[in-house]
Specification:
Blueprint lengths: L1 E9 L3 H19 L2 E6 L4 H7 L5 H9 L2 E6 L14 H12 L3 E7 L12 H4 L4 E7 L9 E6 L2 E6 L5 H16 L4 E6 L5 H14 L6 E6 H10 L6 E4 L1 H14 L7 E5 L6 E4 L16 H13 L4 H16 L2 E2 L9 E2 L2 H10 L5
Helix pairs in contact: 1-10, 1-12, 6-7, 8-9, 10-11, 11-12
Bound molecules: 3-isopropylmalic acid and magnesium ion (MG).
Length: 359
């Protein structure tokens, strides 16, 4: 199969981790007889430096025309003082919106080899952690009007949070469909005791529930959900929630699995062209030191094969290789524990490649 992948290395540790993921893909292509071609795309701080824009239109176009996009991470302190509409993160938001990827899927699953790295008590971890957060990605407060004005001699900032019924419905359907493929439990998370947008969210979810009688729908307020995720994460199968709540809860969910460095994500819309990225950021403090964990990005590449290219065997092959490397005791610094062998980013990538075995 021939596939063209748009590659966004981005900032900070982005280039290092993406390079390892590309080496993994190269080996997978050799093993399974595929041809992957790559189109480099500048986005984030590096695009601001080079083009004066975090995502020039022609870069977005390259992504839309690709078969899928693999992204490292963007942002860093160097661009902290640029105006809001020019920040590196704005490039990412424009990419998500431009690609129309409204559904962001973030799995929170504990790797048994890393159970020790979870900050939760063993008794909680042992009950199992295996859920997925379906986060609405191109609506809500991230995409409302943002402004800072002066009123009565002081600055006032306004961030608008709006959701249309149809935006809620399309992500709701992804939530129900995801639950149908798993343990058929969907928890809709909102703040309906305060927000209008959340009351509409809840109403739409309950309307949809009638169409998915095999799925058990529950509601949870977001503050309670934040508590329940650390108290008893085993209760969750699929969580569906709006953009900002999903941003926050998915960081929390990743942390209880041991390391944010391990978690990939997929963002999908109406077409097969998806955006695949680790959920962690650009970690500028460790950039260029060859110590970052490339596993989140490698697993994002595996998700791309599975969900956009229909290559389940190839995706399994990558995931099994990661598991084998963890079994053998190799760890990057973020997931290191006593008795393991500490390796850097490049070595972790090479170990994964050595363990790629055609099933
Ligand atoms: C994420 C990140 C982004 C987000 C930032 C970088 C804009 O935190 O993907 O979770 O908030 O969506
Ligand atoms: Mg985030």
């Amino acid at each position: 199969m021939n596939r063209n992948i748009a590659v966004i290395r981005g900032d900070g540790i982005g280039p290092e981790i993406v390079n390892q993921a590309l080496l993994v893909l190269k080996r997978v292509a050799e093993l399974y007889g595929h041809t992957f071609t790559y189109t480099d795309v500048d986005m984030g701080g590096c695009a601001i430096d080079k083009w004066g824009d975090p995502l020039p239109q022609e870069m977005l176009q390259k992504c839309i025309e690709s078969d899928s996009v693999l992204l490292g991470a963007v942002g860093g302190p160097k661009w902290n003082d640029v105006p809001g509409h020019m920040r590196p993160e704005k490039g990412l938001l424009r990419l998500r919106a431009g690609m129309g990827v409204y559904s962001n899927n973030r799995p929170a699953k504990i790797w048994p080899q890393l159970a020790d790295a979870s900050p939760l008590k063993e008794s909680i971890v042992q009950k199992g952690i295996d859920f997925i957060i379906v986060r609405e990605l191109i609506g809500g407060i991230y995409f409302g009007k943002h402004e800072t004005v002066e009123e009565n001699g002081e600055a006032v900032s306004i961030d608008e949070l709006r959701y249309t019924e149809s935006e809620i419905e399309r992500i709701g359907r992804i939530g129900f469909e995801t639950a149908q493929k798993r343990n058929k439990k969907l928890c809709s998370v909102e703040k309906s005791n305060v927000l209008d947008s959340s009351r509409l969210w809840k109403k739409v979810m309950h309307r949809l529930a009638a169409e998915y009688p095999d799925v058990e729908l529950s509601d949870m307020l977001v503050d309670n959900c934040a508590m329940q995720i650390v108290k008893d994460p085993s209760q969750f199968d699929v969580i569906v929630t709006e953009n900002m709540f999903g941003d926050i809860l998915s960081d929390e969910a990743s942390m209880i699995t041991g390391s944010i460095g391990m978690i990939p994500s997929s963002s999908l819309g109406a077409t097969g062209c998806g955006l695949y990225e680790p959920i962690h950021g650009s970690a500028p403090d460790i950039a260029g030191k060859d110590i970052a964990n490339p596993i989140g990005t490698v697993l994002a590449a595996a998700m791309m094969l599975r969900y956009s290219f229909d290559m389940a065997e190839e995706a399994d092959c990558i995931e099994n290789a990661v598991s084998a490397v963890l079994d053998a005791g190799y760890r990057t610094g973020d997931i290191f524990s006593e008795g393991c062998k500490k390796v850097g980013c490049t070595e972790m990538g090479s170990l994964i490649i050595e363990n790629l075995k055609k099933g």
